[in-house]
Specification:
By secondary structure, this protein is an alpha+beta fold. Among the domains are: about 140 residues; about 90 residues, Immunoglobulin-like, CATH 2.60.40.10. Helices cover about 30% and strands about 30% of the residues. The protein is built from four helices and 39 strands. The strands form ten sheets. A five-stranded antiparallel beta sheet has the order 1-2-31-30-29. A five-stranded mixed beta sheet has the order 9-13-12-11-10, with no helix packed on it.
């Protein structure tokens, strides 16, 4: 557009009548319109540029994908080429190895060819010597044939020698067996002991049982032997290694054979120091013992069915206890004593069970018996019932101080009253525990036992009517073996504690004090009727295959009551009216024994003391005793001694020394009743 001159502009302005401000505004509007057009054109250009950029981006992405695809293809090709190269390298390596192997084989073959050449040369040399070798061989074969002939002759002689040797060995075995039989036969011995005026014969025999490591029990401690029917049942105990066992064996006396009992059911755990008694209908009752800790369970074994059954009891059972004493009386089982302390290595103390316990065999209910006069409680004693079931005798055992006892106590079963004999004659057995005991008629027999490592092998008899101890056997035939008894087998199975350990704590044999050697051997001892059986091992085995039997042959008159037999010295005491503190003791010997009596002894004791003194010894039939204490109760007995070594006792006479005035003459039996002291004769009170 052509620019106008100033003159014309002013003319136009004047002509149009428009001011300059309006024109400037109009120009600005036109400029804005022009800029808007340019803006729209720029937007169109930008949109076109964005679209072109998107197309370029898509092209770039397509190119990138194509590049990735090409790269992957190149990588695949390169990997294939590398694998092929590796395969070719492996093939080349194998080929090189094959070449090396072939080369080595060729070299080895060359060496072998050289060796064969040398061997062929040697063979040529050996072939040259073959003729001489063949000739020498012929000579050697001829010599071999000569030697073979000589060897056959020697083998024939050897066979003859072997036959003779076998025959001699058989003869030697026969001779050895004969020697053993002869030794056992020589071990048979018989001796007679006069008890009163009657001879008791004891026959000792020894035999070797069938040796079987399976069926013969090994030596053991604190076990029980219980007689049921015709067999003895051995249960439990502590073996030589110090561990407990629950093995059950049966011994048949008729065949003299042990057998292991194959039992079923819920067998009791291994234990020692338990109690075992025989119940009616062929049942064995096992109670208590120690397995660490103590036990107080009851288990029944039926010998007919061979089944163990735990016994469920009610009432008030005894506490956990070991080494108690148990006995069957009628339809109940009595239990006394035992150790219920928690014994340990650091505290080997003894806690003796107190009270008398009873188990009713009909209801299997435990209760504490309201017995009176219960003796001092102890462990390791024996309870033995009289044959009539009216009395039970307790002997031996040890108390909480560990000291063994040798006193005897009796329980009057109907009245549940304990008492001790007021005046026991004779020499009692040494204090002991773990012994065996049985009752034959009115006689209580005691055998074996031990006291703090000292073992006893003797046998004593206590006459419950005459209140007298007699030694039947000193045990010299059994003294080669220690006497750990399994307990009485006739009525009960009282256990034996470990020797030298009153606490009953299980210990190995080598630990027991006083034994002198770890090779100390144990034995089992039991009474069966009138026989004492003792099993012990040999020097070469710990199986109980040697059996010592002491057959106690009791004279017929021994079972006749003294009241019927009229076979005792009659003694009585008379007060001396002239001397307030004196009595006259007189006695009469039965006419049939009057010529045999050579001397008399008077033994006297006081009711309040257990001390018995010999107050007279001589040949007279009377004795004046002075210096007595007024108001005291006295007991005395007279002993008559015979020329043949026998003896005869009087009755136990009792009298009460009254003050000087009105002192009555007292008969023995009458005043004994007046004293009101519970005592016994043949199971009855005086």
């Amino acid at each position: 557009m052509a620019k106008k001159g100033k003159g014309s502009a002013k003319a136009d302005k004047a002509a149009d009548g428009v001011s300059d401000a309006d024109r400037d505004a109009l120009k600005k509007d036109e400029r804005i319109a022009q800029l808007m057009l340019e803006l729209e054109e720029a937007k169109l250009g930008t949109a076109f540029a964005d679209k072109r950029a998107e197309e370029l981006m898509r092209a770039r992405d397509d190119l990138r994908r194509e590049i990735i695809t090409v790269k992957q293809d190149c990588d695949d090709v390169l990997a294939d080429m590398e694998r092929e190269l590796a395969a070719r390298s492996a093939i080349a390596s194998d080929l090189q190895k094959t070449v090396d192997d072939l080369t080595a084989k060729l070299e080895a073959r060359d060496l072998r060819v050289q060796e064969l050449e040398r061997e062929r040369e040697i063979a040529r040399q050996q072939m040259a010597q073959a003729g001489a070798v063949v000739a020498e061989r012929e000579k050697t074969l001829a010599r071999i044939r000569e030697l073979e002939a000589e060897l056959e002759g020697r083998e024939a002689k050897i066979r003859i020698y072997e036959s003779n040797l076998n025959r001699l060995e058989g003869a030697l075995r026969t001779a050895q067996q004969s020697a053993d039989d002869l030794r056992l036969a020589m071990a048979r011995s018989t001796h007679t002991v006069f008890v009163g005026a009657l001879p008791w014969t004891l026959q000792h025999t020894r035999q070797k049982l069938t040796d079987s490591s399976v069926n013969v029990p090994t030596e053991r401690d604190r076990s029980t032997l219980t007689k049921i029917g015709s067999k003895l049942y051995l249960f439990g105990g502590t073996t030589r290694g110090g561990s407990g066992t629950n093995e059950l064996f049966a011994y048949g006396a008729e065949l003299s054979l042990w057998e292991r009992v194959r039992a079923s059911g819920d067998a009791p755990c291994a234990r020692g120091g338990h109690c075992a008694v025989a119940l009616p209908r062929g049942r064995l009752l096992v109670f208590g013992g120690r397995r660490n800790p103590l036990l107080n369970d009851c288990v029944l074994f039926n010998v007919d069915s061979g089944i163990w059954t735990p016994l469920k009891t009610s009432g008030v059972p005894p506490p956990l206890v070991e080494k108690a004493a148990m006995v069957v009386v009628g339809n109940r089982v009595l239990l006394l004593g035992g150790d219920c302390g928690d014994v340990s290595e650091n505290d080997p103390g003894i806690q003796v069970l107190q009270g008398l316990f009873e188990l009713d065999l009909e209801t299997f209910t435990w209760r504490i018996c309201p017995a009176t006069g219960i003796p001092p409680q102890r462990c390791g004693m024996t309870l033995t019932a009289a044959e009539d079931g009216q009395s039970v005798f307790a002997f031996g055992g040890y108390g909480e101080d560990g000291a063994c006892r040798n006193d005897i106590h009796v329980l009057n079963v109907p009245g549940l009253e304990w008492s001790s004999p007021p005046m026991v004659m004779g020499t009692p057995p040494a204090p002991r525990e773990g012994h065996a005991a049985t009752m034959i008629g009115r006689y209580l027999l005691i055998s074996g036992g031990h006291d703090r490592g000292h073992h006893y092998f003797d046998t004593f008899m206590f006459d419950t009517e005459l209140l007298c101890w007699e030694s039947l056997d000193s045990g010299s035939g059994l003294a080669g073996f220690s006497a750990d008894s399994a307990g009485p087998a006739r009525l009960s199975g009282s256990q034996a504690g470990l020797p030298g350990d009153p606490s009953g704590r299980p210990r190995k044999l080598s630990e027991a004090p006083g034994e002198g050697s770890p090779e100390r051997r144990l034995r089992l001892t039991a009474f069966v009727d009138n026989k004492l059986l003792c099993w012990h091992p040999t020097d070469k085995t710990n199986s109980l295959i040697l059996l010592d039997t002491v057959d106690i042959q009791i004279p017929e008159g021994a079972f006749v009551s003294r009241a019927v037999r009229n076979d005792e010295i009659a003694a009585e005491a008379h007060a001396d009216p002239k001397e307030p503190r004196a009595v006259d003791v007189t006695w009469r010997v039965p006419p049939k024994h009057k010529k045999r009596a050579v001397a008399f002894k008077v033994l006297m004791g006081v009711k309040t003391s257990n001390v018995i003194r010999e107050v007279y010894s001589g040949t007279e039939d009377h004795f004046h005793l002075s210096g007595l204490r007024s108001g005291a109760d006295y007991y005395f007995r007279v002993k008559g001694e015979f020329q043949d070594g026998g003896c005869l006792w009087s009755n136990v006479a009792a009298f009460h020394l009254e003050p000087a005035k009105d002192r009555p003459v007292t008969s023995p039996s009458a005043h004994a009743r007046e004293l009101g002291r519970p005592t016994f004769f043949d199971g009855h009170r005086w």
